[in-house]
Specification:
Helix 1 packs antiparallel against helix 5 (116-145). The longest helix is centred in the N-terminal third of the chain and has 33 residues, at 4-36. The protein has one domain. The chain starts with a helix and ends in an 8-residue tail after the last helix. The mean pLDDT is 94. It has 5 helices and no strands. It is an all-alpha fold. The chain is elongated. It binds fe (ii) ion (FE2) (2 copies).
Length: 153
């Protein structure tokens, strides 16, 4: 039985993950455009702005997930996911560090087009990590609450 508070929690995670997913897709488009433009300043600046936006969103998202105990609602019902949740929450600071490195590279890329390929590599790697991370969180919630978030393609 899912009460109103739990429902709001599940919907909150779902909405956040959907939003992050849309931001990642947008950055992938801007990245392709910057690459096609051979890392021209205007394109890289647009890419940088989107990456800065993602960084802000991620900080808020992680803080929200960790507030009041990470995955606490799901773990109360399904404590078997405890060790996995611990591994996932440990990924948050690692991902923020990767983001800092990406931001640094994106800022350099505005004036140094030669770092473009490295920026592209870092971003792609990061998106793979982020997608796997959110998918694992979705799976825990779906299994704990026996619900379908409709997020795992
Ligand atoms: Fe997370
Ligand atoms: Fe998440």
């Amino acid at each position: 039985m899912i009460d109103a508070r739990l429902y709001a929690y599940i919907e909150g995670v779902r909405a956040d993950h959907l939003e992050l997913r849309a931001m990642v897709r947008e950055i992938e488009k801007l990245l392709a455009a910057a690459q096609a433009a051979r890392w021209a300043t205007v394109e890289v600046q647009a890419l940088l702005a989107a990456v800065e936006d993602l960084d802000r969103h991620l900080r808020e998202h992680f803080a929200e997930e960790e507030a009041g105990g990470y995955m606490e609602e799901a773990l109360a019902i399904a404590p078997r996911f405890g060790p996995q949740a611990q591994r996932l929450v440990n990924e948050h600071p690692v991902m923020l560090q990767q983001m800092a490195q990406i931001l640094d590279m994106a800022r350099r890329c505005v004036t140094q087009s030669q770092v473009g390929p490295e920026l592209s590599r870092l971003l792609r790697e990061f998106f793979t990590t982020l997608r796997a991370h959110d998918a694992a969180e979705n799976r825990i919630i779906q299994e704990a609450f026996n619900t379908d978030l409709g997020l795992n393609d």
